[in-house]
Amino acid sequence: MMHEVVERLARLIDRLSTIGGWIASGAVAAIVVLVAIEILARSVLGRSTQISDEFCGYLNVTVLFLGMAMSLRDGANVRVEVFYERIKGPAALFVRWLIVLASLAYTMIATAVLIRYLTYSYSRGLVSTTISQTPLWLPQMIMVAGSMLLVLQLAAFLLRGGKTVP
Questions:
Q1: With 0-12 CB in 10 A as exposed, 13-18 as middle and 19+ as buried, what is 89?
Q2: Where are the domains of the chain?
């Protein structure tokens, strides 16, 4: 019974990571569209949108933060293979567990800092210094959501007993 609940929870985390990955993919498409609009506006109209670079930056944040968990789950994250290839047997599993635990601790701390940053920006009404005056809590909320997804995905590795430790 408990194993079933744990596996369901891990599958839910996987689905959330997939949703984050799809949103990140949509953000890449949005970047392409924004850049194309900016190019057309400058070449045809002789004017800039004035916001494309800023919004492409926010979309890059979306790609990075919402794509991290899916990337980790699918083994697409960057890691030092030379290091992993040298360690064999039980030591390799131990090192992987150690890395997951350290990553989890770091990501939890980073998430807490991002939440403080978000609440500070929201409570102070901070906005970007650009023409759009975007409330800064909006892109920061994406950072918090992505960081939380990464924490959950790292926890999913632990829930599965390390069978799929990256």
A1: exposed
A2: 2-159
